Amino acid sequence: QTSQKRSNSTPENPRPKRTLSSRSPYALFSPNSFSPSVTPSQKYAARSSRGEVVASFGSVQGPSWSGGGGRGCTPKLFGSPEENLTKSYKFMFQKALDVREVLSWRIEELGDALKSHHHLEDFAPALLPAQEPVTVLGQIGCDSNGKLNAKSVVLEGDRERSSGGHVPLDLSELKEYSLFPGQV
Fold first, then answer.
1. Cβ neighbours of residue 103 under 8 Å, at least 6 residues apart?
2. pLDDT category, 117, cuts 50, 70, 90?
3. 84 Cβ contact partners less than 8 Å away, ≥ 6 residues apart
């Protein structure tokens, strides 16, 4: 008795295990069915009609924009000369402590502006429990890496009064709110 064994080699022209029939609902919603009928793509370097509009959607109406070619624009340095960059600077290569220091300084600066505008007394520490209403200073954060929602909102207290502590905020009784991470 001879047994029939299947070959363990990859076929030259493999057959797909599952094919979409012409009556399949998935064929109706494929990207191909929504794309405009244009010529199939070619190699980018071999294109012959550079700059030609192949397909467009809608009509172009409204004002046409034109510039003066940079004439009449004079750039000026912002701040004092001591604060301006005098050598090359690698953007986003700052030390974490330097970034935190700038953020803390910015929170304090915004806190001073809020205090003077709303005529507030001094801010209370966010970590100390209080029986009466208090005003605290900090920024909105998220307790996880997910999206900000009513259950994940925390207040990151300022360094001066709250030592950067995190306090969860209960927003369940609010009908609506508008917050974003980093908001002071």
1. 139
2. very high
3. 77, 78
Largest CA-CA distance found in the chain, in angstroms, rounded:
98
Number of Cβ within a 10 Å radius of residue 163: 11
Report the candidate in 172, 164, 139 with the shortest Cα–Cα distance to residue 154. Answer: 139
Q: Looking up tokens 């009784």, which residue turns up?
A: 173
Cβ contacts of residue 164 below 8 Å, gap of 6+?
Answer: 156, 157, 158
Tell me: the pLDDT tens digits for 42-99?
A: 676 777 777 787 777 777 666 666 666 667 777 777 777 677 777 777 777 888 888 8
Q: How many C-beta neighbours within 10 Å does residue 123 have? A: 20
User: What is 127-182 written as a DSSP string?
Assistant: TS--SS---B-EEEEESSSS---TTTEEEEE-HHHHTT-EEE---TT-S-----TT
Cα–Cα separations (whole angstroms), residue 46 to 41, 51, 53, 54, 105: 10, 13, 17, 16, 54
DSSP state of 71: T
Burial 22-50 (b: 16+ CB within 10 A, else e): eeeeeeeeeeeeeeeeeeeeeeeeeeeee
Pair of tokens at residue 40: 């199939």
CA–CA dist 165, 161 (Å, integer) = 9
C-alpha separations of 104 from 71, 138, 162 in Å: 40, 9, 12
